Every structure is written in C-alpha cells, then in structure tokens.
C-alpha cells in the first residue's frame, strides 16, 4: 500500500494528466495550461508583485496568505513565454485556495513527476522549482 500523496488533490490531478501523456503531447498539455493562466485581479499590479529571476522569462508572483486556510496565488507571465506561463498555471490550478500547510507539504521536486525533463531545458525546470520555493518562503514567513 502506498502512502497518500502529499499533494493537494487538484495538483495530483494535474500530475496524473501529464503522466497519461507521452512525448510531445506533454508539451501540448503544457501549452494548454499556459492559455488558462488566470488574469490578475484588477487591484493587483505586476509592479507590486515579486519577480522570480530564476525564470528565463519575466515572471512575477503574489502570495496572499491573509487567510492561511485559503491561500491565493497570482502569477503574471507574458504570452511570449508559454513554458513559464504553463508552469505558473499548473501551480495556480493545483495550489490556489489551498491551505498554507497543504502548499508547504508539496514536494519541492513534484514537477519531476510531470515528465517534462526530456522536453524542457533544466534551466526552465529550475524556474518552476523557484516559483514553488518562493511561494513556500512567503508562507513560512
């Protein structure tokens, strides 16, 4: 019997979707996620967000942990950066409105389970890791 996943159900579902895909279909799915990145709320400007310099493309994030039971995550990435947008959208889909404890329990290398290592450069994968690390750092403060 395997231990329960430390991932919130929505993130585990995303990982499962990627696991069902092979090769280039994984990239297609990542691009679909890129197109689904939620827009920023009207009262949040990119200038007020934290940059993630580890990403090869400009990416900004904002963690609203006023309610630690329903943490809100916001991302801004240009349309010309579909890989970065896709990663941000995966995190938004899987972790937005989860509790701080659930987010902090996500394995730092969960993205390796997406199976994108052979399709995406290590630098880009490091950017996804950096997004999660920064979210966790905000929540630990």
TrEMBL record:
What positions does the domain Fe-S metabolism associated occupy? 16-137
- Fetch the SUPFAM superfamilies from UniProt: SufE/NifU
Under InterPro entries, the record lists:
Fe-S_metab-assoc_dom
Family listed: Belongs to the SufE family.
* PANTHER family reported in the protein's UniProt record: SUFE-LIKE PROTEIN 2, CHLOROPLASTIC (PTHR43597:SF5), SULFUR ACCEPTOR PROTEIN CSDE (PTHR43597)
Q: What is the official name of this protein in its record?
A: Putative SufE-like protein
